[in-house]
Amino acid sequence: MRIDVVLLRNIKNLGAMGAVCSVKRGYSTFLLREKMALRATKDNMAYFERERKRLEAQNQALYDEAVDRQKSLADMFLVFIRSAGEAGQLYGSISVKDIVNVLSEKGIHGIKATMVTLVDPVKKVGVHTCTIQLYPDVLVTIRLVVAKTTGEADLLEEEARNPKASASSSLAEVQHTLPDAGVPMDEAMADDPLPDHAEASVKEGMGSSNVSSPDAASSDSASSSSET
Asked: Does residue 94 sit in the same domain as residue 156?
């Protein structure tokens, strides 16, 4: 069974304030309870027209409040310290209710579970995101830092806030381990000389080598020919 209601505010995916919509009974109960709509009776329609200007001003105030809250939440990180296995898999998950509770602990009230949407299930250590519907046309995305310790959470948040700096740091570490192609070999050897016993072994091997140079071989051949 469907019920006709007149909307007292803009509602996403339903209509603008003043629109008459036909909704399921269960949804109509929710709209009426939250004072977001009235049954579309003759008396209620007359009431709406009398109160239209006041309701428009009220909706504008709600919109402005949502925009202000969006700005204050835009750079927010919520930290969750949870037990997890070696691979980072949580023993459980982070729920919408958990997010609402942490927001409340931070003094941010008025956020209901129905306003929060998780982009992906939060079942692993790392940085995740969720969206909060503050008003029909006002959304904010906040990040969720899930870690096993406070220190790990601080590191994850820092990397999320400064991804370029983190990438540059990793590249610098890799480059530090590579040899400098611009350094001449003798300078490179000077920076990292052979141990004394190794150097002595090299010199001894060079002195006792039986390999003759091309010039020496030619000289020996000429001597043999003259003797013949």
From this structure: yes
CA–CA dist 97, 111 (Å, integer) = 10
Q: What is the pLDDT of residues 211-225, one digit of tens each?
A: 444 444 444 444 444
Q: What is the DSSP string of 157-210?
A: HHHHH-HHHHHHHHHHHHHHTS--TTS-HHHHHHHSPPPHHHHHHHHHHHHT--
**Are both 48 and 105 inside the same structural domain?**
no
Distance CA 124, CA 86 (A): 11
Q: What does the alpha-carbon distance between residue 100 and residue 115 come to, in Å, rounded to a whole number?
A: 9
Q: Which of 161, 186, 218 is the last residue of a domain?
A: 161
| CA neighbor of 91 nearest in space, from 123, 129, 128 | 123
Quote the CA–CA distance of 27 and 24 in Å, as a whole number.
5
From residue 196, give the alpha-carbon distance in Å to each of 34, 142, 199, 200, 203: 86, 61, 5, 6, 11
| d(C-alpha 217, C-alpha 49), whole Å | 116
**H-helix or E-strand spanning residue 146:** strand 138-147
Structural domain harbouring 60: 2-64
Residues paired with residue 219 on neighbouring β-strands, in sequence order: none
Question: Do residues 38 and 82 both lie within one domain?
Answer: no
pLDDT tens per residue, range 67-78:
999 999 999 999
- Edge-to-edge strand list for the sheet holding 2-7: 20-24, 2-7, 37-39
Q: Model-level pTM?
A: 0.64
Spatial distance between the Cα atoms of 146 and 144, rounded to a whole number of angstroms: 6
124: in domain: yes
